[in-house]
Amino acid sequence: MKSYPINIKPFGEYAVLLEWPNRVEEDILYDILGFVEHFKATNASDWETVVAYNSLTLINNRGLIDFDTAKEEIEQYLATRDMSKTKVKSYLWEIPVCYDLEFGIDLEEVAKRLNLSTDELVNQHTSYQYTVYGIGFLPGFMYLGGLPSSLEVPRRAEPRLKVAKGSVGLAGKQTGIYPQQSPGGWNIIGNCPISLFNPEKEKPCMVSVGDKVQFLRIEKAEYDLHKIEAEVGIYQLKKTPLNG
Fold it and tell me: Boundaries of each Carboxyltransferase domain copy (predicted)?
């Protein structure tokens, strides 16, 4: 396992920020997740962890922290961890999306801009597995990396005040799903009928950082059916373990 230089900095009175090299890479992400598993094994009740791209925020649940003491403790874990014995559980999720123009309100415009037909755009979008690099902006909003360069398109010049729940969008090098209605500036190409975030559950977001997502194209009739199935609680997203 590759070793990375890690910068440890104070992050307010209750938290510490750990920064890996400033690059978007799966190896860096999984190195962070491996450290989290190792660290939580003995510190689960003391620290809350937030992973995003190349950083890890440790928030102390005991209250105010002494940064020098916390830094020394973290450095000890970094020095003694055995990554060969750390297993990070991750899954590939298959997420249904309807790309009909009723939902893909920017689909034709984006396809024209990328010099693709709408079918070519959808085929490319559903052909890749995307890595979940972070969850934020909105509760349950997944930042998905791994978008092919052929689908890269800038954010909209004028964000919308209302983007529908379940909207699937493109922005820069990323794709993502809006977990609830909100303002947003991503280019909307489809909609997912399944709610991926439920604040009433012990784990509100079923997908975790480090998981992968692949989109499955469905027709409008399937969309309507899956929406009903999800509302009554009988729809189950397909997930496949990635590491045994």
Answer: 6-207
**45 within domain boundaries:** yes
Say how far apart CA 152 and CA 187 lie, in whole Å: 11
CATH of the domain at 118: 2.40.100.10
pLDDT digits (tens, 9 = 90+) for 160-171: 999 999 999 999
pLDDT tens string 207-220: 999 999 999 999 99
CA dist 237 → 165, 167, 196 (Å): 17, 17, 10
Quick one: 243 exposed, middle or buried, by C-beta within 10 A (0-12, 13-18, 19+)? exposed
Alpha-carbon gap, residue 134 to 168, rounded angstroms = 16
Q: What is the model's pTM?
A: 0.87
- 234 and 144 belong to one structural domain: yes
pLDDT at position 45, please?
Answer: 65
Q: In the structure, what pLDDT confidence band is assigned to residue 200 with cuts at 50, 70 and 90? A: confident
Pairing of strands 91-98, 212-218: parallel
CA distances from 197 to 48, 70, 148, 177, 194 (A): 20, 33, 26, 11, 9
Phi-psi region of 62 (alpha: psi -120 to 50; beta: other; left: phi over 0): alpha
The verdict on 81 and 169 lying in the same domain is no
Domain range for residue 44? 7-85
What's phi and psi for 97, nearest 5 deg?
-140, 135
Contact in structure between 31 and 4 (CB atoms under 8 Å) = yes
The DSSP 8-state label assigned to residue 125 in this structure reads H
